[in-house]
Amino acid sequence: MKKDAKIRILIADDHYIVRIGLVALVSTEPDMEVVAEAADGAQALELFAKCNPDLALIDLSMPVKSGIETTIEIRKRFPAAAVLILTAYDGDEDIYRALQAGAQGYVLKSSSGEKLIPALRSVAAGQRWIPKDVASRLASRSSFEQLTPREVQVLQELAKGLANKEIADTLNITEHTTKDHLKSILSKLRVADRTEAVTAALQRGIIHL
Amino acid sequence: MKKDAKIRILIADDHYIVRIGLVALVSTEPDMEVVAEAADGAQALELFAKCNPDLALIDLSMPVKSGIETTIEIRKRFPAAAVLILTAYDGDEDIYRALQAGAQGYVLKSSSGEKLIPALRSVAAGQRWIPKDVASRLASRSSFEQLTPREVQVLQELAKGLANKEIADTLNITEHTTKDHLKSILSKLRVADRTEAVTAALQRGIIHL
DNA sequence: CATGTCATCCCTCTTTAGAGGGGTATGGAA
DNA sequence: TTCCATACCCCTCTAAAGAGGGATGACATG
Predict the structure, then answer these.
(1) Which class would CATH give A149-203?
(2) Rounded-to-integer distance, Cα B91 and Cα B201, Å
(3) What's the pLDDT tens digit per position in B150-191?
(4) Which of B195, B202, B204 to mutate to test the interface with A (most CBs of A within 10 A)?
(5) Distance from CA of A56 to the nearest CA of B (A)
(6) Strand stretches in A60-206, DSSP E
(7) Which part of chain A is CATH 3.40.50.2300?
(8) Residue A152 CB closer than 7 angstroms to strand C?
(9) For the segment A109-142, what is each residue's pLDDT rounded down to a tens digit?
(10) Which CATH number describes the domain made up of B149-204?
C-alpha cells in the first residue's frame, strides 16, 4: 500500500460536536483522513461532488436534506460511492430505507471506536457492514406488512390530529376511502386505534413529527 | 491564576462519538480538562461523587437514568455543583425541566465550539448560560397552561393507544374521570382530539415514546 | 390472459369520543 | 376562613370511529 493512499472520508452531521468527535477518531488511524465536513444534506452533496471521497459517513437526521435523501442522491450521481450511515437509532424503517437507498453500512452513535473504525474500513473496501442486532431487527421488521405510499400519507395527516373527514378533504378522497386506508393501517401495524397507529409509526420511523 | 487550576469537567453522554468530540474540544483549551466520562446517568452520578468536578456537562437523553433525573440527584447531593445541559433539542418542556432541576445552563449539540467553550467557562464560574432562542421559547412556553401530574399520566396512557375505559382501569378511576382529565388536556394543549394531544405532547417533550 | 395490488367508492352497525352540563372532598394560598 | 386548584364522580347527547360487509377501474407482473 502506498503511504499516501489514505481512505478519504466525507462526514455529514448537523451536530458540531459529533463532527469533532469523528475527526478526532479518524485522525487516530494513520490510513484514513477526513477530507470534508458537512452540516446538512445539501452541503454533503456539494462537498461529495467537489472532493470525491472514498467514503461518505452520513447522519440520518439532518436539516435541509435528510440522510436518506442525501444517500439516494449520492448513489444516483456516483454509483460507485461508498456510504456508511451513522445515527442515534431512528427506528427500523429508517434503517431499512437507508439500506434500500444504497447505503452499504449502518452504525450507531453509541458504538465504540473499536467497532466504528472497522466499519469505516470495511465499507470503504466495498463490503457491507450491518451490526448483528440491526440485522435481526431488520429481519423481524419483515413480519410486518409494508404500508403503501397512500397509507403513509394518511398516517401523516393522522399524526396532525385530523379527523377522517378532514383527511379526506386534504387528500381529495371521500371519508369512506379514508376509513378504508385507516382500516388497513390498523391491521398492518397491528394496533387498535389511530392514536396507537401514530405512536407505533413514530417508533418505527415510518413517519416523523 | 495558578497553572494547574484547570476547570475539571465531567461529561455524560451515551454516544461514544459525542464523548470523543467533547474531549477533543476541551483539550484545545489549556485551562480545562475532562476528568471523567460517563455513558449513562447512573454512571455520571458515581463519577461525580468520586471526582467532584468543577462542572458536569450532561446530555438529556441517556439510558438508565435520564439527564433530568441525574441533574436533580447531583444538585441534591452536591448543592454547589455546576451543571450544563448539552442536548439535541428535546422540546421546550425538557429545557424547562432541566433548568427547574437546577441546571445553570443549556447548550445545543449543533452549536459551534466558539459558543460551547464560553458556555463551559461561564457555568463553571457560577454564571447562567441560556441561548437567546432557548430563552425566548421558554417565555412562549408559559402561554400554555401547565398540565397537572395526573394529566401527564393520562397522556402517557393515551400515547399507548388505550381507550378511556382502559386508561380508567390502569389508573383505578372511572371512565368519567378519565374523560374529565382528557377534556382539560385537550383544552390546555389547545388541540382537537387525543391523537393531536399525543403528538403535541411529544413535540413539547411533555411525554416520550 | 390471469392474478394481484392499489386506490377508490359505497353501505350498515356498534362502540367510543368528545362537548356540555352537574356535583363532592381535599389541601394549600390569600 | 374564604378561595382556588386538583382529583374525583355522574349524566346526556351528538358526532365520530372502527368493524363488517361488497364493489370498481388501473396497472403491473407472472
Answers:
(1) mainly alpha
(2) 9
(3) 999 999 999 999 999 999 999 999 999 999 999 999 999 999
(4) B195
(5) 16
(6) 83-87, 105-108
(7) 7-141
(8) no
(9) 888 878 899 999 999 999 999 888 777 777 766 5
(10) 1.10.10.10
